Amino acid sequence: MGKTTSRRPGKKLPVTHQDFARANIANGSRRVRLGVTDLSFHRATAAVVAQVMQHMGLTVERQYALHEDNFKRLREGAIDMIASAWIPFSHGIYKQTVDAVTPTRELGLHYEPYALWGVPDYVSEQEVASIEDLLKPAVRARMHPLIQGIGPGAGITRFSLKIMDEYGLNRAGYQFRTGSQDDCIDAFEALYRQQRWGVVPLWHPQFLHHRYRIRDLSDPKGLLGSVDRAVLLAREDRLALLTTAEIQVLDNIRLSNAIVAELDDAFNRGEQSADEAASDWLARHPETLRRWLAPLA
Fold it and tell me: Which of 35, 85, 187, 255 is deepest in the core (most CB within 10 A)?
């Protein structure tokens, strides 16, 4: 028998991100499953992000869930991205569970959120300047004892439960209660209408800051964390859907606490949907949109 010549396969060239992206574009409609935390200011921010994606020819399917559930869905691959993740403090522990399974990438800077405990501006600052002041007998006698929060998965809720314990507010007769965002807003607005003293566990950005003057209480124990970065958090394996230029567009998106509070106010009190509020804002700021989309030129 003659000698058999082995056939060695030729060397394969590496497949690049752009190769995947071009293949996805060639295959037709590209769909992004965008997870949105089901609170109004997250909806308002996500509406801006979705409209930028639509400018790039993407089909955007928004799916709404509460904080922790969104990260679980991202980890499982049920969604591709989250708008917006608060990193590193409020949502950092949830992001770690995703990163343990698949790499993620942070894109853009939607705003710089932070948690706070606040009081209406008519509450005397001389008497109530910090969370510790809530323990003063004279303050406790005037302060509404119920502190109405939002859902249990929110960073502000986790921080507030620690505050109640470590400042001794439970023992002093205060009660922290979880609920919906509407429960929290309604409780604050009821206090304001009646000019009663009370505490609101809140965050920036939020439309109440656009309508009312709310004064932050100092937190000597540092339990409220610090300023987060609100970003578009994407699974790396799903970014192959996009070109490098499109990813840069998403990274270009820059809003602010004041802008998101304005969008949130239009959604909550201005009788606009989140998409209408986003469209209106983008129409009034065409240069901003052009700057974001510049990598596509």
Answer: 85
Residue 56, sorted as left (phi over 0), alpha (psi -120 to 50) or beta, turns out to be: alpha
Residues 208 and 258 in one domain: no
Strands 114-120, 214-216: parallel, antiparallel or unpaired by DSSP?
antiparallel
Beta 229-235 vs 81-87: how paired, if at all?
Answer: antiparallel
pLDDT at 167: 98
Structural domain for 58, as ranges: 17-113+227-296
Distance in angstroms (rounded) separating the CA atoms of residues 84 and 94:
13
Place of tokens 């009034």: 284
Same domain for 145 and 194, yes or no, is yes
Please state, in angstroms and rounded to a whole number, the distance separating the CA atoms of residues 224 and 218: 10
Asked whether the predicted pLDDT for residue 258 surpasses 60, the reply is yes
109 Cβ contact partners less than 8 Å away, ≥ 6 residues apart: 229, 230, 231, 253, 254, 255
* Whether 242 and 212 share a structural domain: no
pLDDT reading at 15 higher than 80? no
Q: How are beta strands 81-87 and 30-37 bridged, if at all?
A: parallel
Q: Do residues 280 and 135 make contact, with C-beta atoms less than 8 angstroms apart?
A: no
Closest CA relative to residue 238, chosen from 70, 77, 36? 77
DSSP-derived 3-state class of residue 203: strand
- Residue-wise pLDDT for 89-140, tens only, equals 989 999 999 999 999 999 999 999 999 999 999 999 999 999 999 999 999 9
Q: Quote the CA–CA distance of 162 and 155 in Å, as a whole number.
A: 11
Structure tokens at 124: 């005397």
Q: How many domains does the chain have?
A: 2
Average pLDDT over residues 194-221: 96
Q: What is the dihedral of CA 87, 90, 95, 96, to 10 degrees?
A: 110
Q: pLDDT tens-digit profile of 147-173?
A: 999 999 888 999 999 999 999 999 999
The values of phi and psi at residue 174, to 5°, are -80, 155
Which residue, 297, 264, 279, 278, is CA-closest to 42? 264
